Amino acid sequence: MNIHEYQAKAVLKSFGAPVAEGVPVLSLDDVQKAVDTLPGPLWVVKSQIHAGGRGKGKFLEAAAGEKGGVRLAFSKDEVLEHAKAMLGHHLVTAQTSDAGKQVNRLYIEDGADIDRELYLSLLVDRATGRPAFVASTEGGMDIEEVAHETPEKILTLPIDPTSGVTDADAAQLCDALKLDGAAREDGMKLFPILYKAFIEKDMAMLEINPLIVMENGRLRVLDAKVSFDGNALFRHPDIVELRDT
Ligand code: ADP
Ligand code: MG
Question: Phi, psi at residue 71, to the nearest 5°?
Answer without folding.
Answer: -125, 135
